[in-house]
Amino acid sequence: MPNQVLSTFPLGMPWQTFDPFLFSVHHLDRFPAGNEALGPAEGTAGRRLGQDFGGKDGWNMYHGQTVPGFPYHPHKGFETITVVERGFADHTDSLGATGRFGGGDVQWMTAGKGVLHSEMFPLLNPEGDNTMELFQIWLNLPRANKLVPPNYQMLWAEDIPIARFPGVEVKVIAGEVDGHAAPAPPPHSWAADPNNHLAVWLLRLNAGAEWTLPAAPADLNRTLYFFRGEQLSVAGQAISPYHGVRVASDAALPLVAGDTEVSLLLLQARPIGEPVAQHGPFVMNTQEEIALAFAEYRKTQFGGWPWPSEEYVHPREKGRFALYPDGREEVR
């Protein structure tokens, strides 16, 4: 039988990904108590504001000046999938959409022909820790869909299925596990065609737990990211902590946790197989298209910024919600 583990690699910053995935990153910040502006009450002395990825004291301001996060910036030609397992994120964009999500919610945004948005991490607890854990995944769009209208939608935690097995939980953000199907992805996403077999799963195995990753069709890119835990075996091969594992997509793979709980992210899909030209937050097929994208952004600002500040956040007392460009609102 051919080797079911194709390769392993250390998880850097960002994580290595494979077509159609462009980027994946895991943020875990143990933020302190929040002040009235929802930034860190202990202040930001000694940090490179606007470019703080140093991990000082176990947390980062990222590009935020007052509140941690990513003030407004453009995207074009791909999608972002933002999974906030702990803490909260405030989203605003140039379409007039906004929201607050967290505690297991997922935001899926199709940038398409271009959008400005911000992702800020308000520190809502004024008296204690504000731990935040999130994953952001960039998913490419095929040439035919790179210029579709932007789309923003929420997958609320209550609506995301969790497949449970003895000692194992699988959170199904995209795809299907044992009859547990994820909410529908955006209509122009590579994930919208079931023939692409796109899957985004978060797996948790208790200490000593075993589970067999079911086989999928051949010729998919399938990668496991071992981001928490000490011991993991994949198809009988010991995997070092904080490593990625490329595996054969058409093989059923036994996963065995060691003496501690193990957490994994799975990314899987049929490759798009088109040329990728990327410059920062713009992803097209050619360098000429990248140049046109920058020219359009300079001219239109993708609709401009309708919010009071570049790192706008909602009041502390605001709960989880999503306001869409058409005025429709969801409240959780």
List the topology elements.
Blueprint: E1 5-10, E2 21-31, E3 69-75, E4 78-86, E5 88-93, E6 98-102, E7 105-110, E8 115-120, E9 130-140, E10 151-155, E11 162-165, E12 168-174, E13 176-177, E14 180-181, E15 199-205, E16 210-213, E17 221-228, E18 232-234, E19 237-239, E20 243-247, E21 253-257, E22 262-269, E23 277-279, E24 282-284, H1 287-300, E25 321-323, E26 329-331
Antiparallel strand pairs: 1-20, 2-9, 3-8, 4-7, 4-9, 5-6, 5-8, 6-25, 7-10, 11-12, 12-15, 13-14, 15-22, 16-21, 17-20, 17-22, 18-19, 18-21, 23-24, 25-26
Please describe the structure with a list of short key phrases separated by commas or semicolons.
mainly beta; globular; 7-stranded antiparallel β-sheet; Jelly Rolls; 26 strands; Pirin family protein; Pirin_C_dom; 6-stranded antiparallel β-sheet; about 325 residues; 2 domains; about 5% helix; 1 helix
